[in-house]
């Protein structure tokens, strides 16, 4: 009778265990969605989007003013109007980006909550599986002698067989659910990483635009103070700022992860890229300069600490081995407050991206293998990626979009929060185009 009483206890326990399992299964189907919805209420999201829409309309209006003013003859009134529109647009963009970052922070919190719930669910299911395995082992371990001594009937043996079958079915269901939850957890982790990447990029842009805003306000104040609103005085200021061809060639072009080079040499590399890719030389220089502004941590990182393993560490070691370089001595970008760094050289390519382009870079420059810290190879890498991004079309819109794709990828490139990056690249490109025109006239 001992085994019969135990079987009754086991049936009750199994029923309770399966009941809890089904409860947990049901919970896992709605709880993550509930947590995500709780991070920002629908009303809050609607309000946030409404504020963003309003700001983006104002930003577009300032962009229309800028586009129109750039077609006018250079004058004090034109340039002050451009600075005023840029300052107004910058303030609006910073406010709009703050709202976007706020929404991303809520999304990140929701994803983290989802991962926590799924992780807890997997742990619970593992506990259920262990309990079921124990029950299975206890039934299966009853020996023929125990069965004979307890004089169990044939019907009771069939009952145990039914219970054993139920356990096996419950185990199969549980294993399937654990597998599904693991996949869902990985999807949530990938989504979380994407949100964090986007947040980090926007924070970098925010910092850069805030810095530029201060510079623009100071420039406007200085122009008005020096000229006192007199056009002839402004034209004199412009003449004084005009550089000679020799001065332009000699000025240093700053690079991230590599030593600065003379502007003349940088232009030589950029023109070679233009010839191979069709991407404007001035635009290449604009990209490299903007990447330098964003890459404040370049050269301060270490591949062992800052790179994502094995995605980037493995190709990084292969790159260094091919080039005969000590990986511990090569500058890479430091990781930010979260996530990973590891971008290399002036073009700021991560190793896993560099290896996708290295054959094309070699074919274009003749350097085998190409070196991400070598300006010639880095410029070519930038040009090839920008060509893939559509920059070879040569229009201002195409170049702006290609620039934002360079930073944020194709998915995020059309988002208004990234527009400043494209505008910043074009502003540098305009500056360099003016210098290239002076060099071409001499």
Top keywords for this entry?
single chain; 442 residues; mainly alpha; Lysozyme; two-stranded antiparallel ribbon; disordered N terminus
Concise synopsis of the structure shown:
The protein is mainly alpha-helical and 442 residues long. It has 15 helices and 2 strands. Helix content is 77%, strand content 1%.
What letter string, H or E per element, gives the SSE order?
HHHHHHHEEHHHHHHHH
Main pleated-sheet profile: 2 strands, antiparallel
- The termini sit apart by 108 Å
The overall number of domains is 2
Number of helices: 15
- Give me the secondary-structure category: mainly alpha
* Average pLDDT metric: 84
Strand content: under 5%
The number of strands is: 2
Estimated radius of gyration = 32 Å
- Stretches where pLDDT is under 50 for at least 5 consecutive residues are 1-38
Describe this structure as you would to a colleague.
The protein has 442 residues and is an all-alpha fold. The chain folds into two domains: 2-227, no CATH class; 243-440, Lysozyme (Orthogonal Bundle), CATH 1.10.530. It contains 15 helices and two strands. It has helices spanning 2-39, 42-70, 76-140, 144-149, 154-227, 231-241, 245-250, 263-277, 281-294, 303-306, 313-323, 351-365, 375-388, 396-412, 419-440; strands at residues 252-253, 261-262. Strands 1-2 form a two-stranded antiparallel sheet. A hairpin with a 7-residue loop joins strand 1 (252-253) and strand 2. The model is unreliable at 1-38 (pLDDT under 50).
């Amino acid at each position: 009778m001992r085994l019969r009483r135990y079987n009754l206890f086991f049936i009750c326990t199994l029923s309770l265990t399966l009941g809890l399992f089904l409860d947990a299964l049901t919970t896992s189907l709605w709880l993550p969605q509930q947590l995500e919805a709780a991070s920002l209420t629908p009303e809050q999201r609607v309000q946030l989007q409404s504020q963003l829409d309003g700001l983006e309309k104002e930003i577009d209006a300032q962009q229309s003013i800028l586009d129109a003013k750039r077609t006018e003859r250079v004058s004090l009134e034109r340039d002050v109007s451009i600075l005023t529109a840029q300052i107004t647009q910058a303030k609006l963009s910073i406010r709009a980006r703050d709202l976007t970052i706020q929404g991303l922070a809520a999304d990140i919190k929701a994803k983290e909550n989802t991962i926590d719930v799924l992780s807890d669910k997997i742990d619970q299911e593992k506990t259920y599986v262990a309990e079921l395995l124990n029950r299975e082992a206890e039934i299966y371990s009853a020996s023929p002698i125990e069965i004979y001594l307890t004089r169990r009937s044939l019907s009771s043996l069939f009952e145990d067989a039914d219970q054993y079958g139920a356990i096996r079915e419950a185990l199969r269901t549980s294993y399937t659910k654990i597998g599904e939850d693991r996949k869902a957890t990985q999807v949530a982790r990938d989504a979380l990483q994407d949100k964090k990447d986007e947040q980090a990029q926007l924070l970098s842009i925010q910092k850069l635009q805030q810095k530029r805003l201060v510079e623009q306000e100071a420039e406007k104040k200085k122009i008005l103070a020096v000229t006192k609103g007199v056009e002839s005085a402004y034209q004199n200021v412009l003449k004084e700022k005009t550089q000679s061809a020799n001065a332009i060639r000699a000025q240093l072009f700053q690079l991230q992860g590599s030593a600065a080079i003379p502007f003349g040499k940088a232009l030589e590399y950029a023109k070679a890229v233009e010839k191979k890719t069709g991407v404007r030389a001035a635009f290449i220089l604009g990209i490299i300069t903007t990447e330098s502004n964003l890459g404040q941590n370049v050269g301060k990182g270490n591949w062992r600490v800052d790179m994502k393993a094995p995605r980037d560490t493995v190709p990084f070691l292969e790159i260094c081995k091919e080039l005969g370089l000590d990986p511990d001595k090569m500058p890479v970008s430091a990781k930010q407050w979260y996530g990973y760094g590891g971008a290399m050289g002036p073009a700021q390519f991560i190793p896993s991206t560099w290896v996708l382009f290295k054959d094309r870079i070699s074919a274009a420059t003749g350097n085998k293998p190409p070196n991400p810290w070598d300006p010639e190879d880095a410029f070519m890498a930038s040009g090839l990626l920008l060509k893939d991004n559509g920059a070879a079309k040569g229009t201002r819109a195409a170049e702006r979009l290609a620039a934002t794709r360079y930073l944020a990828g194709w998915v995020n490139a059309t988002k208004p929060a990234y527009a400043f990056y494209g505008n910043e690249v074009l502003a540098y490109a305009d500056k360099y185009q003016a210098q290239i025109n002076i060099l071409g006239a001499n």
